[in-house]
Amino acid sequence: MRADPKMSLAEVEAFLEAEFPQLRHGGRMVSVESVGPMSARLRLHSDERHLRPGGTVSGPAMFMLADVGIYVAILAQIGPVALAVTTNLNINFLRKPPHGDVLAEISLLKLGKRLAVGEATLFAQGPDGFDDEPVAHAVGTYSIPPR
Amino acid sequence: MRADPKMSLAEVEAFLEAEFPQLRHGGRMVSVESVGPMSARLRLHSDERHLRPGGTVSGPAMFMLADVGIYVAILAQIGPVALAVTTNLNINFLRKPPHGDVLAEISLLKLGKRLAVGEATLFAQGPDGFDDEPVAHAVGTYSIPPR
Amino acid sequence: MRADPKMSLAEVEAFLEAEFPQLRHGGRMVSVESVGPMSARLRLHSDERHLRPGGTVSGPAMFMLADVGIYVAILAQIGPVALAVTTNLNINFLRKPPHGDVLAEISLLKLGKRLAVGEATLFAQGPDGFDDEPVAHAVGTYSIPPR
Amino acid sequence: MRADPKMSLAEVEAFLEAEFPQLRHGGRMVSVESVGPMSARLRLHSDERHLRPGGTVSGPAMFMLADVGIYVAILAQIGPVALAVTTNLNINFLRKPPHGDVLAEISLLKLGKRLAVGEATLFAQGPDGFDDEPVAHAVGTYSIPPR
Predict the structure, then answer these.
(1) Are D45 and D116 in contact (CB under 8 A)?
(2) Which domain CATH number covers D94?
(3) Distance in Å, alpha carbon of A134 to nearest chain B alpha carbon
(4) How far is CA A87 from CA A67, A71, B94, C92, C117, in A?
(5) Range of the domain at A46
(6) Gap between the terminal Cα atoms of chain D
(7) What is the C-alpha to C-alpha distance for residues A6 and C56, in angstroms, rounded to an integer?
(8) Digit-coded pLDDT (tens) for D88-139
């Protein structure tokens, strides 16, 4: 079940580059740091567009990071044969993130024929590296089209 | 309980303009169409930045519209005395929206001293006006700081 | 789209009686009050088993009412040809309900070939009838097996 | 932050026994197996009342296990000084559990002054012990009364 993913990091990044050019709109917003069995790690590069007053990362930016992250973990695992579509995403905002990059650790909870469910735990970069305590946590469901 | 809101539409728009200038980054993204007792209506102006391949409105853009919408309904009802913070948002994507504006109908389910809960139902503009069937539905919880 | 449901109230109740006898375990816990196009109304009969200390209706009992209610609305609409399975349910507890019956108003937001999404708004019976303000609100997603 | 919990396993069980006698209604339904820093493990003892046709554990029973489990982890950590109340619970049902006990691994994501957020991952007992793949996953938010 925890088989190796079908796509490499380079293949995933090339796919995103081609299919989701808006992820780079005005600079590199999100990068995939690694993919593994039923898992992935992504980074949100902090950027003025994601900021609210007070200099923190916005909710929609964290939503986007979690959503793209779970999508990437599914994509890497099953390959680019079918485009998964988000059907549900539940996000909890836990702490106000400082100004800086945000890291998303993705873990797939289920990868079925029709539905996949994954979880994203987001950590903020502080002055001494990434904090131990998450700034946000999301669980998303994705519909996988019939192949 | 369904008292009149404390802020008018013009006051809400002026507050957003001052506090969330990024909602206008690169043009008018979101506008508030009306506020009422425990309710509000907002419009997402379709724009290239929100589009995925295929020309549809992106998930993060709909998340942002729902999130801002519930925030606005709370703000209008209680006034700008305290800044509510999103603690949880659950969104279901129901149909692929066509390219066009998206309307969010907001209704507050609870407005307590410490927590508020609201629901957002999103409708897409089709060739013959807004569709009857929602494209997305969200429920969000907001923490209200002690006053 | 808002076609009449395929099952009548009596047919739905007979189906539940046969397939979910535990809904009557130790007495009548839940009854279906009406079914309509993309909608249903159910009643939770208050009963000691659902109570927490303080005499209020328990969270799991309200979860069960919302879950059964959305299931019933789907069942009535598409008929007993396929058994829908809950894949996700998000519930917000809004107010502490008094001791008494709870009414669930169900509305389907989407009824697709593979997924259905419905919302349940729960109202508690007070001394002067059902309150205007909901005690809980849930949104659930159901997977519909291939037919 | 990951300080030792304020209550021992025995203290938590005695508290639940006194405050939630319905958890034992008709026999022992749920037991707490361990508590630790920001964590807990609970077991649902399979029992006819939790079964649906087909002999699987019901959704409401898994909801209850997740809800009680996160409550227990908060209780153990902060002590019985304040009664937390569930405000939101989002549950994903991932696989149909076999007939047997269900184990819930609880981890607190946030323990603030006013809100706590925890996650519950549920595993089913199969013929050869507990499966690696979860049957359900829940995230819940609890409001902590002012002390």
Answers:
(1) no
(2) 3.10.129.10
(3) 13
(4) 11, 11, 7, 19, 10
(5) 9-143
(6) 19
(7) 51
(8) 999 999 998 887 899 999 999 999 999 999 999 999 987 788 788 999 999 9
Tell me which H or E stretch contains A18: helix A9-19
Instruction: Give domain status of residue A125, yes or no.
Output: yes
Q: Quick check: is A4 in a domain?
A: no
Alpha helical stretches, state H, chain C: 9-19, 59-78
Determine whether D1 is exposed, middle or buried from the number of CB atoms within 10 Å of its CB (0-12, 13-18, 19+).
exposed
At C90, is the secondary structure helix, strand, or coil?
strand
Residue B74 sits at φ, ψ, to 5 deg, of -70, -50
Rounded Cα distance between D138 and C38, Å, is: 28
In a domain, C1, yes or no: no
Does a structural domain hold residue D3? Answer: no
Q: Partners for A (CB, 8 Å, 3+ pairs)?
A: B, C, D
Tokens of A29: 């917003």
Provide the pLDDT for residue C46: 78
- Residues of chain B neighbouring C110 (CB-CB closer than 8 A): 92, 94-95, 133-134
Section B53-58 average pLDDT: 67
Query: Other CB atoms closer than 10 Å to residue D4's CB: what's the count?
Result: 11
- Mark out the alpha helices in B2-138 (DSSP H runs): 9-19, 59-78
Q: In this model, does residue C63 exceed pLDDT 60? A: yes
Phi, psi of A8 (to 5 degrees): -85, 170
Distances (CA, A) of A37 to A61, A138, C75: 26, 19, 38
Considering only CA atoms, which of D32, D38, D28, D30 is closest in space to residue D12?
A: D32
Position B27 scores a pLDDT of: 59
Number of structural domains chain A divides into: 1
- Short-list D119, D117, D42, CA closest to D87: D117
**Rounded mean pLDDT of chain C?**
87
Residue C141 has pLDDT above 80, yes or no: yes
Mutation to test the D interface, candidates A38, A89, A91, A92, most D Cβ within 10 Å: A92
For the stretch A77-125, pLDDT in tens is 999 876 899 999 999 999 988 878 999 999 999 999 999 999 999 999 8
| Among B104, B93, B101, B84, CA closest to B34 | B104
Q: Write down the ipTM of this complex.
A: 0.91
Q: What count of other Cβ atoms lies within 10 Å of the Cβ of residue B21?
A: 10
Across the interface, do B60 and A64 touch by the CB < 8 Å criterion? yes
pLDDT band at D143; cut points 50, 70, 90: very high
Q: Is the CB of residue D62 less than 8 Å from the CB of residue D102?
A: yes
Residues of A in contact with B48 (CB under 8 A): 22
Please check whether residue D80 is in contact with residue D7, taking contact to mean a CB–CB distance below 8 angstroms: yes
Residues 6+ apart with CB under 8 A from D105: D39, D41, D120, D121, D122, D123
Distance of CA A120 to the CA centre of its chain: 7
Rounded to whole angstroms, the Cα distance separating C31 from C8 reads: 14
Which residue type is seen at C20? F
Judge whether D123 and D103 are in contact, CB under 8 Å.
yes
The residue among A6, A14, A140 whose CA lies nearest residue A69 is A140
CA-nearest residue to C137 within chain D is D88
